[in-house]
Amino acid sequence: MKLGEREQRQAIRGIYEQAGYLQRLSAKLMELTALHQNESISMEAQSMEAVLEQVVPMAESRWPDRRFCLETEQDFTLCGDRDLLVSLFVNLLDNGAEASAPGQEIRVTVREEEVLIRDSGKGMTEEALRKICEPFYRAEKSGKEGIGLGLAICEQIVCLHRGKLRFESRA
Question: What are phi and psi of 43, to 5 degrees?
């Protein structure tokens, strides 16, 4: 079967997109496996404000049509692995940005031994809230192609840091 030039370009684009998806899936699976094995985790004092000052600009460059606001009411120090904490908050901000429409705000607040992330999304059902951290679970399809491992990884990172991950929705 011979493909025309247009069909060839579409096929190549499809192959490229699927290869990217498989690469992201492999990376997420490797990260999840490493977390279970506690490999190369370096626990040191980390200022949450400093971690988030690193993460918010990353989110802004990934989501230029969303507004990110970092507010520090009271900074606190956590004994943790900086790379894992960065991964945690990048993932959480990505989820907030994905749930929000262009122009909407994702607010990050550091206060009293906790970090709050609020998005302006439409909310989630009770069922979705119960399942959201299950590996490969996706609440609904969106413009971004997700794998459904991000929040499962977040939950593992929080667990390794002896913290709590909680989601609320006003759907």
Answer: -90, 115
Number of residues that this document lists for the chain: 171
Element (H, E) at 5: helix 5-37
Q: So what's the pLDDT on residue 35?
A: 64
- CA 84 centroid distance within chain: 12
Q: What pLDDT sits at residue 63?
A: 94
Please state, in angstroms and as integers, the Cα–Cα distance from residue 38 to each residue in 25, 149, 161, 164, following that order. 20, 18, 11, 18
- For β-strands 67-72 and 105-111, DSSP reports them as parallel
What does the pLDDT read at residue 37?
Answer: 65
Closest-CA residue to 96 (of 147, 136, 56): 56
Report helix, strand or coil for 34: helix
| Series of mean pLDDT values for 10-residue runs along the chain (171 residues) | 85 79 68 65 91 95 95 94 90 93 95 92 87 82 66 89 89 62
Q: How many angstroms from the chain centroid is the CA of residue 94?
A: 5
Whole-structure pTM value: 0.77
First to last CA, the chain: 50
* Phi, psi (degrees; rounded to nearest 5) at 146: -105, 165
**Nearest alpha-carbon partner for 88 in 136, 35, 153, 28:** 153
Distance, CA of 110 to chain centre:
18
